[in-house]
Amino acid sequence: MIRADLLVTDVREVATLARGAVPRTGAAMGELSLVHDAAIAVAGGRIAWIGPARHRGRAVRLAPGAATVSADAGVVVPGFVDAHTHVLFAGDRAFELPLKVAGASYPEIVRRGGGLLATVRATRAAPDRRLLREAGARLRRMASGGSTAVEVKSGYALDLPGELRLLRLVPRLARSVGVSLVPTFLGAHAVPEEYRGRADAYVDRLVGHVLPSVAREGLARFCDVFCEPGFFTVRQSERLLRAALGLGLGIKIHAEEFVLSGGARLAARLRATSADHLVCATADDRRRLAAAGVTAVLLPVTALAASPRRRSPAREMVDAGVPVALGSDCSPNTWVESMALVLALAVHAGRLSPAEALSAATVNAAHASGLAGRGRLIPGAPADFSVFSFGSVDQLGYRFDAVPVAVYRQGKRVSPS
Amino acid sequence: MIRADLLVTDVREVATLARGAVPRTGAAMGELSLVHDAAIAVAGGRIAWIGPARHRGRAVRLAPGAATVSADAGVVVPGFVDAHTHVLFAGDRAFELPLKVAGASYPEIVRRGGGLLATVRATRAAPDRRLLREAGARLRRMASGGSTAVEVKSGYALDLPGELRLLRLVPRLARSVGVSLVPTFLGAHAVPEEYRGRADAYVDRLVGHVLPSVAREGLARFCDVFCEPGFFTVRQSERLLRAALGLGLGIKIHAEEFVLSGGARLAARLRATSADHLVCATADDRRRLAAAGVTAVLLPVTALAASPRRRSPAREMVDAGVPVALGSDCSPNTWVESMALVLALAVHAGRLSPAEALSAATVNAAHASGLAGRGRLIPGAPADFSVFSFGSVDQLGYRFDAVPVAVYRQGKRVSPS
Fold it and tell me: What distance in Å separates the CA atoms of residue B43 and residue A357, rounded to the nearest whole number?
């Protein structure tokens, strides 16, 4: 008999994603392993039992002082895992939008004080307490939107002390917000001003000094690189990622966002954990990613914002057998915090079914973030889940702005706090 | 000396939209008439005074029992006016999405029990209390997202008693939710099953019986029609709209959503209050709308959801001198409630500046909804406004999922309730 310290009752439908291999591919992406008229028992911050409410009495007893909460005939889904964010920055870049609307090119925006390096300047100048406050506010809103785990990239310092500082803030943020954070080292986000025109020398510096320091301190789970013309070449990316693999880090790559440049092929060759963006990836790229088991982390809000004619190729990736995961890409360029909106765009623009989008935002996003066991509601898994007030799971991805009525992480309510 | 019963202090920036003609066109759409470090005094549910906080002492005295609330260095903007919704329906149509993803055509979806007429069946069958509960929940979430006035169309009954019933629910909803609602008669939303293949006979019925009943009871402010192949022709639309004009109603038209069919030209010819959707409108249409002073009510979420290659032509309309307003188009087809998201898509996909999008969602949307005096914060106007926690108004349209910390309508807080 299970002794629960939290019992969730009156659950019309719960998506457990219990069955099948991880990550999900193809038809399995649409299989949610629903349980209807369910109850969920939590013990010690982990799922202890999930099943039809009518079987609960035989399986679960309440521990003394246990809490019982009703889902009021709503649905329960695993906490979203946001598999790609740049939340750790200072300031904002709203001032660029009127320039973009007026047709200014990216170099022109840079000349007027904008662009990625503007955020690098603001972030370098910001004291820790400001970064904790601003990123913390974003992460709290993400949590209230149903995200219980978030991948967080460095990459707005681009120097040794600054990148280490950003990565050291990640565990502090995780503690203060109450969300699981996965730190990724993105020193190769851009070539910093000090190295302008000397990208190879900057990669030397990353490989020789910064990456070893990150690894030595255990500050990052993954190493990522922005492989795109004007940023880092395939050769430079490969050098950095091989060094990261040698130091025991997982690898990710920003690939084929603006043009086809070979990053997806590199991801397949190195068997990266994920290739991200992939807006311009080809059918050949899809075949290679599928064969290598690389997860495509798709960012449909960014694809939409970047160009009027672009879409995140979610349908094509699923049809090609590539495991698809989702991320917000929250950054000063695409300020979005709600994974429910990301799901809706993956459905309405990326042409996933709601069930496929939910797999992409939970079990597959957990896999892409190195969080084995998360993103599914199975006995023994951390009790990370959200309650929504509607009666069927397919409302996620259908409604553009669904907001959970309650969010739990490791059995503790994180929202409303 | 003004005696205020509500004082809002510590406002970093307030967009008053006080100056200039209504509706806004061209460059005036970007002029927000900002006041910095402001205070706002409300008396009797109306704006009594807005100005720099340092001048407040000389201008405003607090009435006995007056409330003072701090915006905590946030911004204040006029309550959003959602100029186009179909919130009055029962059920949902999430089940269509997996079919759409699998490539099903609209007729195929109809054969499988979907499409607009499926919502007509569900709405006809729903008792009043269910419609009030479901539409009320949507409107409450809209209000918590910052919408203080919402246009609401009938059109999911398509018979005399049913359409009258829907329109009679609108004032009841307005009272229960605490939001201003503008009822629009959309009996010509589609040809109902009973009239299949006999659209002219249905228009006869609308013109001869339904519309006069609506007008006699004073149930609607506007008459609207879905002018599109498979729905109503330009001739049928003109007949209906001329009858509506004759009965003293304002007129609107769903025009050029899927194909170019002449609805925009008709709107210009009849000097309609608004033409809505306009995704396929031509440069000639834009010139005609501008010359006739017809407001383009644009629905960027629907444009995005309808087709991967379409965008709401917001930039083009503003550049052509057409007054642009925004709406969510919340319906079972595009379930979106947050006007902040609508603004963000108008900016990122429709290429408006954040300031233009804010004008479109406030003063111009009020104009398109027949709500003279709303959508601006000027002395004497209803005190409908929202407080956001960020420090500059340009964050609206930049951030995809901004949520106000407080929403006031006629000086009373409607959210959080």
Answer: 49
